[in-house]
Amino acid sequence: MFYGKVVAGLLGLLLGGPIGLLVGLFLGHQFDRGLRRTMEAHSPENIARIKERFFETIFLLLGHLAKADGRISRGEVDHTEMIIRQMGLTSAQRQRAIELFKRGAEPTFDVAACVAEFQAVCGRQMALRQTLL
C-alpha cells in the first residue's frame, strides 16, 4: 500500500514545501501501515485462525477448570456437553472439543501458555475476550 504516502506527500509538498513533503510522507506511511493491519485483521485466513484459537481455548480451559478440584464431575461434563450442543458442532468438531477438554484436564497442561496464545491471536477481539471470561 502506498496511496497514503502519495496523497499525504503531495498535500504536504503543496502546503509546506520540502519539509511538508517529509511530514506528509511520514503521516502517509503511518496511514498505510494502519490500513494494511486492518485489512490483514479482516482477511478470511485471519478470521479462520481466530475462530480456531477461540474454539481450542474454550475447551482447553473448560477441561482445566473442571479438573482444578482434582476430579471432573458429571455436572461439569454435562455443562460442557450443553456448550457443545449450543455451538451446534458437527460430529468431528464435537470429537475435537472432547479431545481438547481432556488435554486441558491433564496435569501437564500449561494454562499460562494457552492464555498467551489466545491473547496473541485474539487479543484485539474484545467480544471474544469477554465471551471467554
UniProtKB/TrEMBL annotation:
The Co-chaperone DjlA N-terminal domain, residue ranges: 59-124
Pfam families in the record: TerB (PF05099)
Annotated transmembrane regions: 6-27
Keywords: Membrane, Transmembrane, Transmembrane helix
Superkingdom: Bacteria
InterPro entries: DjlA_N (IPR007791), TerB-like (IPR029024)
Keyword Membrane included in the entry's annotation: yes
Protein's UniProt keywords contain Transcription: no
Protein name: Co-chaperone DjlA
Source organism of this protein record: Haliea salexigens
Lineage: Bacteria, Pseudomonadati, Pseudomonadota, Gammaproteobacteria, Cellvibrionales
